Amino acid sequence: TEVNQKFLTNEEFEVLKKDTYIKWNTWALVTIIDFWDFECEHCIDFHNSWKLKELDLRFKDKLNFIYKNIPIESNEDSKQKSMIARCVYDNFWWEKYFEFLNWMYIRPYLTSSIWEFEYKNYLLEFWINDEKFEECISQEKYNEQIKSEIWQSIYLWIKYLPSIVVVNNQTLSYKVFESDELWEDLEKYIEGIIWV
Q1: Band of pLDDT at residue 4, cut at 50, 70 and 90
Q2: Nearest of 11, 9, 12, 15 to residue 145 by alpha carbon
Q3: φ and ψ at residue 33, rounded to 5 degrees
Q4: What tens digit of pLDDT does each residue of 132-163 get?
Q5: How many CA atoms lie within 13 A of 142 on its CB side?
Q6: Are 65 and 32 in contact (CB under 8 A)?
Q7: Contacts of 34 (CB under 8 A, 6+ apart)
Q8: Is the CB of residue 173 less than 8 Å from the CB of residue 6?
Q9: pTM listed for this prediction
Q10: Contact assessment for residue 151 and residue 68, using Cβ atoms and an 8 Å cutoff
């Protein structure tokens, strides 16, 4: 179901952009905010459909992307994967982070012990400082950031994952599209902003 159009204040928009995974172009007309989780089956299917990548290739510098990982609180694997991804972002910024997401999403159903073994071997390919990386995870330094993003999803009335929030950067109006069922509507909404 598509949520009625609402508006963000400048301050609210800045909060959504702060301390998050972001691909940014100052002159973009639209910002796409993707709310998802590593353990969510629909999120896995949506990510592996490459639909957001198709939008990126189609509209290029007219779009900004913000990724909000909302771990399922009752799922420890979900929280751990979220923490690991944030530590990858800490070390390697945008491109390696997204590469790591792709790697994680094609291995969603491994048991925790096998998954942990594989991801550590994979990280060695990035030349990540193992000691620094383990310290990043053990400190749980991103707990507050995770809580903040959960509250952001509540504020925006995100009820399902994945959900896509499309923001008009000029007016700060936004709409929420839940899952990928409304993909055609989402594309038309973006086109309506960009090609006006």
Answers
A1: low
A2: 15
A3: -110, 120
A4: 777 777 767 788 888 888 899 999 989 888 99
A5: 26
A6: yes
A7: 52, 65, 66, 67, 68, 162, 163, 164
A8: yes
A9: 0.85
A10: no
Residues facing residue 164 across a β-bridge: 34, 177
The 10 Å Cβ neighbour count of residue 57 is: 9
The mean pLDDT value for 33-56 works out to 86
Q: Six-digit token pair at 124?
A: 């060695």
Residue 137, C-beta contacts closer than 8 angstroms, at least 6 positions apart: 80, 83, 84, 87
CA 126 – CA 124 distance, rounded (Å): 5
Amino acid making up residue 102? N
**DSSP letters spanning the chain:** -PPPPEE--HHHHHHHHTTSEEE--TT-SEEEEEEE-TT-HHHHHHHHTTHHHHHHHHHGGGEEEEEEE---TT-HHHHHHHHHHHHHHHHHHHHHHHHHHHHHHT-TT--HHHHHHHHHHHHHTTT--HHHHHHHHHTTTTHHHHHHHHHHHHHTT--SSSEEEEEETTT-EEEEEETTTTHHHHHHHHHHHH--
Angle at 94 between CA 92 and CA 97, to 5 degrees: 65
The structure tokens listed for 193 are 């902003």
Nearest 10 degrees: CA dihedral of 101, 103, 108, 111? -120
